[in-house]
């Protein structure tokens, strides 16, 4: 169950209109424009709420995405690379976000460092096709995952703070 | 120019080669370099009962009148998507039964963490699953032809290739395969197989084991006729476990070799019945390991399915049915009571209040006892709660660079 802060953040992300996946040519470009518009708005919202926590970019076809996400714990910034492919069945199915460098460190991951989303995520996504996009995936999927897993991994000593990340 | 992906694949291939070479050297040391455990190919299946004939007990099915023509097994090509806990055992069973051709798809490699499951062995750790599987299966039965693909079918390029192999990977190259078996462990891959099979009009069977490892199912999907994977929210076998006692924190999924073996067994049984034409072929067969209960049912394709190829196949099916001369009336199993209350304890939403939960729930299909849906979807939501993206003049390239500068 999403907390109030997440619900508020999600409600401020613009919804998408175009129901189109990477196998559709022109409509996919339209969908991608909407994805970027929603992502830009979400990052702007995060910045103004002093909660900037990820960056994403894609290849020019918009089929492969990569970026960084970070989590502040005890005033230290922990940053990770993330990546995912857009499945051919998108947006009916959400992409599987991976943080390869954490692979094998937590049981809340599938092979290849794909994060394991809560039971609530899939029904929620299915009910909101095609209105939810990648910004929603970040807010409802990756964000809550980091909030639970990173403090736990730090507490267990499985991730250490990198010195160069100190100036956050 | 080679892309990073291509180079990664190449590295993978070379790693596989290296592991195989190492294994071969070990095996040579052990067996003094002989290949004596490998049998010769058998041109024609024989029913003769001699200790060297691997088909005598299978051909006995014919003598006993169970199967009319067992040798037909050699004329079929089956694609197995996902060579994990269920897929590898499925492939092994089909290999031992003497199937004509197997096409294996999986992007994963064998890990020591897989050793709680059947089939793979510790010395294969590091090899791609398809390659390790082919190696073992070929030594079990050299009469089967194998084709393997080490990639993720849900990405754009691979999906096109996947579709091509389904439609051309028959025993006789150029013809479609006879059956596709889904032995994958995730929703995305199932939907990708569903998309491909709806487009191609390819008959396939779905299989699955729940993440808590105590239930599973198999399902026959005939595009246009029986419900496809997108016709309804995912069907699940109710495990009858109190949700409050089910602890999900800290782990993604559990797995048991037993449940996977049972599911592979009922899957291949259904495949044999379908291909060789004996017994009755199940449309949906569930397995509840907690109660040892096997619910069955049949579900028609949904005229409102989101997949437009599914709807197209339904039109096609209707047209064919209308053209067909009328036969005797088929007795359809009576659908059983709908559970109005949420007795299987599915609780799913991120909605907070009871009203929100009600509003977010949709109609539940008529399902027999023991089978339910993973979640429901409300019929058309009136106005979307929230604002839509505002149209701008900016091109995709401009938006991409704006995002990059943030
Ligand atoms: Zn359908």
UniProtKB/TrEMBL annotation, chain A:
<comment type="subunit">
    <text>Interacts with UBA5 (via C-terminus). Interacts with UFL1. Interacts with UFM1.</text>
</comment>
<protein>
    <recommendedName>
        <fullName>Ubiquitin-fold modifier-conjugating enzyme 1</fullName>
    </recommendedName>
</protein>
<dbReference type="GO" id="GO:1990592">
    <property type="term" value="P:protein K69-linked ufmylation"/>
</dbReference>
<dbReference type="InterPro" id="IPR014806">
    <property type="entry name" value="Ufc1"/>
</dbReference>
<feature type="active site" description="Glycyl thioester intermediate">
    <location>
        <position position="116"/>
    </location>
</feature>
<dbReference type="GO" id="GO:0005737">
    <property type="term" value="C:cytoplasm"/>
</dbReference>
<keyword id="KW-0833">Ubl conjugation pathway</keyword>
<dbReference type="InterPro" id="IPR016135">
    <property type="entry name" value="UBQ-conjugating_enzyme/RWD"/>
</dbReference>
<comment type="function">
    <text>E2-like enzyme which specifically catalyzes the second step in ufmylation. Accepts the ubiquitin-like modifier UFM1 from the E1 enzyme UBA5 and forms an intermediate with UFM1 via a thioester linkage. Ufmylation is involved in various processes, such as ribosome recycling, response to DNA damage, interferon response or reticulophagy (also called ER-phagy).</text>
</comment>
<comment type="similarity">
    <text>Belongs to the ubiquitin-conjugating enzyme family. UFC1 subfamily.</text>
</comment>
<dbReference type="GO" id="GO:0061657">
    <property type="term" value="F:UFM1 conjugating enzyme activity"/>
</dbReference>
<dbReference type="Pfam" id="PF08694">
    <property type="entry name" value="UFC1"/>
</dbReference>
TrEMBL record, chain B:
<keyword id="KW-0862">Zinc</keyword>
<dbReference type="Pfam" id="PF00899">
    <property type="entry name" value="ThiF"/>
</dbReference>
<protein>
    <recommendedName>
        <fullName>Ubiquitin-like modifier-activating enzyme 5</fullName>
    </recommendedName>
</protein>
<keyword id="KW-0067">ATP-binding</keyword>
<dbReference type="GO" id="GO:0005829">
    <property type="term" value="C:cytosol"/>
</dbReference>
<dbReference type="GO" id="GO:0005524">
    <property type="term" value="F:ATP binding"/>
</dbReference>
<feature type="domain" description="THIF-type NAD/FAD binding fold">
    <location>
        <begin position="55"/>
        <end position="306"/>
    </location>
</feature>
<comment type="similarity">
    <text>Belongs to the ubiquitin-activating E1 family. UBA5 subfamily.</text>
</comment>
<dbReference type="GO" id="GO:0071566">
    <property type="term" value="F:UFM1 activating enzyme activity"/>
</dbReference>
<dbReference type="GO" id="GO:0046872">
    <property type="term" value="F:metal ion binding"/>
</dbReference>
<dbReference type="InterPro" id="IPR029752">
    <property type="entry name" value="D-isomer_DH_CS1"/>
</dbReference>
<dbReference type="InterPro" id="IPR035985">
    <property type="entry name" value="Ubiquitin-activating_enz"/>
</dbReference>
<keyword id="KW-0547">Nucleotide-binding</keyword>
<keyword id="KW-0833">Ubl conjugation pathway</keyword>
<dbReference type="GO" id="GO:0071569">
    <property type="term" value="P:protein ufmylation"/>
</dbReference>
<dbReference type="InterPro" id="IPR000594">
    <property type="entry name" value="ThiF_NAD_FAD-bd"/>
</dbReference>
<dbReference type="InterPro" id="IPR045886">
    <property type="entry name" value="ThiF/MoeB/HesA"/>
</dbReference>
<keyword id="KW-0479">Metal-binding</keyword>
């Amino acid at each position: 169950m999403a907390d109030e802060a997440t619900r508020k953040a999600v409600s401020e992300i613009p919804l998408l209109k175009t129901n189109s996946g990477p196998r559709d040519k022109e409509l996919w470009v339209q969908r991608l424009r909407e994805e970027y518009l929603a992502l830009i708005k979400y990052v702007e919202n995060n910045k103004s709420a002093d909660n900037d926590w990820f960056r994403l970019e894609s290849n020019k076809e918009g089929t492969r995405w990569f970026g960084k996400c970070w989590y502040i714990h005890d005033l230290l910034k922990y940053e990770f690379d993330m990546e995912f492919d857009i499945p051919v069945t998108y947006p009916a199915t959400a992409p599987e976000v991976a943080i390869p460098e954490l692979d094998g460190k937590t049981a809340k991951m599938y092979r290849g460092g794909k994060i394991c989303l809560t039971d609530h995520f899939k029904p929620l996504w299915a009910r909101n096709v095609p209105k939810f996009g990648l910004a929603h995936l970040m807010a409802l999927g990756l964000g809550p995952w980091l909030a639970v897993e990173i403090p736990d991994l730090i507490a267990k000593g499985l991730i250490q703070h990198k010195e160069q990340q100190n100036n956050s | 120019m080679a892309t990073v992906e291509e180079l990664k694949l190449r590295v993978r291939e070379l790693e596989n080669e290296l592991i195989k070479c190492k294994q071969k050297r070990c095996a040579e040391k052990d067996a003094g370099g002989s290949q004596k455990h490998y049998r010769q190919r058998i041109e024609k299946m024989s029913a003769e009962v001699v200790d060297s004939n691997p088909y005598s007990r299978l051909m006995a099915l014919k003598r006993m009148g169970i199967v009319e023509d067992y040798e037909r097994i050699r004329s079929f090509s089956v694609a197995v998507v996902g060579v994990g806990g269920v897929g590898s055992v499925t492939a092994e069973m089909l290999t031992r039964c003497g199937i004509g051709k197997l096409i294996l798809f999986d992007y994963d490699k064998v890990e020591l963490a897989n050793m709680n499951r059947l089939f793979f062995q510790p010395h294969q750790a590091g090899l791609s699953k398809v390659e390790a599987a082919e190696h073992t299966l070929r030594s079990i039965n050299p009469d089967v032809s194998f084709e393997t693909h080490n990639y993720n079918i849900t990405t754009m390029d691979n999906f096109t290739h996947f579709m091509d192999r389904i439609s051309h990977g028959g025993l006789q190259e150029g013809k479609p395969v006879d059956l596709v078996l889904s032995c994958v462990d995730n929703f995305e891959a199932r939907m990708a197989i569903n998309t491909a099979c709806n487009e191609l009009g390819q008959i396939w069977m779905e299989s699955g084991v729940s993440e808590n490892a105590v239930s599973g199912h198999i399902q026959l999907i005939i595009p246009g006729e029986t419900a496809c994977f997108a016709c309804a929210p995912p069907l699940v076998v109710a495990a009858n476990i109190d949700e409050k006692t089910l602890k999900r924190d800290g782990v993604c999924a559990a797995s048991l070799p037993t449940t996977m073996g049972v599911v592979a067994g009922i899957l291949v049984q259904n495949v044999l019945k379908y291909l060789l034409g004996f017994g009755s072929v199940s449309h949906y067969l569930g397995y509840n390991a907690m109660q040892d209960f096997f619910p069955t049912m049949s579900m028609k394709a949904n005229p409102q399915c989101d997949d437009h190829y599914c709807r197209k196949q339904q039109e096609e099916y209707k047209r064919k049915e209308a053209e067909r001369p009328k036969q005797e009336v088929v007795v359809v199993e009576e659908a059983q009571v709908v559970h109005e209350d949420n007795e299987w304890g599915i609780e799913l939403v991120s909605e907070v209040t009871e009203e929100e939960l009600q509003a977010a729930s949709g109609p539940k299909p008529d399902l027999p006892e023991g089978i339910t849906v993973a979640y429901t979807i409300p019929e058309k939501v009136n106005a979307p709660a929230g604002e839509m993206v505002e149209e701008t003049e900016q091109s995709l390239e401009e938006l991409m660079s704006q995002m990059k500068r943030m």
